[in-house]
Specification:
The chain has about 80 residues and is α+β, with helices and mostly antiparallel strands. Helix content is about 40%, strand content about 20%. It folds into two domains: about 35 residues; about 40 residues, Desulphoferrodoxin, N-terminal domain (Rubrerythrin, domain 2), CATH 2.20.28. Strands 1-6-2-3 form a four-stranded antiparallel sheet, with no helix packed on it. Strands 4-5 form a two-stranded antiparallel sheet. The mean pLDDT is about 75.
Length: about 80
């Protein structure tokens, strides 16, 4: 009976070893990708044809018509992509 318990612990520990290797590989690939840098400036009003980006969530939009108000996403004004 003791032999069966010993073989189970070896199997589960090897599974955990393999899992930790896989998780380490995933974290390495995530940190290796640099984020795309975009030049932006805060927008005071919406202008037709301008592209806006949210610095918090990364949402992008293109304005369809002029507006006197500012474009807002996530509670903060969006930035014009220059």
């Amino acid at each position: 009976m003791a032999k069966k318990n010993a073989s189970r612990s070896n199997t589960s520990s090897s599974w955990w070893n393999e899992r930790s290797k896989i998780m380490a590989m995933k974290s390495e690939t995530k940190t290796a990708k640099p984020k795309k840098k975009v030049k932006t400036k805060k927008a005071s009003k919406a202008e037709t044809g301008q592209t806006y980006i949210c610095e918090i969530c990364g949402c992008e939009m293109v304005c369809a018509s002029n507006s006197s108000g500012e474009v807002v996403c996530c509670g903060e004004p969006m930035c014009i992509v220059v």
